[in-house]
């Protein structure tokens, strides 16, 4: 089915490059389609390889951002839902943050 669709759309060749993470994990593949039969040129292969490297960087960055977001959410939930009174204060004495237990215990909303 995929081959039929490719041929029907004038695509006669495809080259694929794995997208590999910095620690060697397979993240996916990137493909280049051509309307000409034959081997890819050295330039085409280089573009495909660099595209896969850039894709790996982007994917890993997105994964790291998501991991950080989840970690921050977990920390915030722990902090906010603790039964202990927790506060963060600047050196000048101004409050940066207080948790729900602190506000309830001291009558703030």
Ordered list of secondary-structure elements with their pairings:
Layout lengths: L1 H7 L4 E8 L5 E9 L7 H40 L5 E3 L5 E4 L1 H6 L4
Antiparallel strand pairs: 1-2, 3-4
3D architecture notes:
It is a single chain. The protein is an alpha+beta fold and 109 residues long. It has one domain: 2-Layer Sandwich (Beta-Lactamase). It has helices at 2-8, 42-81, 100-105, and strands at 13-20, 26-34, 87-89, 95-98. The strands form two sheets. Strands 1-2 form a two-stranded antiparallel ribbon. Strand 3 (87-89) and strand 4 (95-98) form a beta hairpin. The longest helix has 40 residues, at 42-81. The chain starts with a helix and ends with a helix. Residues 54-88 form a coiled coil. Keywords: Coiled coil. This is PAS domain-containing protein. Residues 71-109 form the PAS domain.
- What is the name of the CATH topology? Beta-Lactamase
| Total domain modules | 1
- Structural class of the helix and strand makeup? alpha+beta
Strand portion: 15-25%
User: What overall geometry do the principal axes of the alpha carbons give?
Assistant: rod-shaped
The CATH architecture category equals 2-Layer Sandwich
């Amino acid at each position: 089915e995929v081959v039929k669709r490719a041929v029907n759309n004038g695509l006669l060749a495809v080259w694929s490059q794995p997208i590999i993470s910095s620690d060697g994990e397979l993240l996916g593949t990137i493909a280049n389609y051509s309307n000409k039969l034959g081997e890819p040129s050295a330039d085409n292969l280089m573009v495909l390889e660099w595209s896969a490297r850039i894709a790996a960087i982007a994917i890993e960055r997105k994964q790291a951002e998501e991991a950080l977001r989840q970690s921050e959410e977990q920390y915030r939930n722990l902090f906010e839902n603790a039964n202990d009174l927790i506060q963060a204060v600047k050196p000048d004495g101004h409050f940066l943050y207080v948790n729900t237990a602190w506000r309830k215990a001291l009558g703030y909303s």
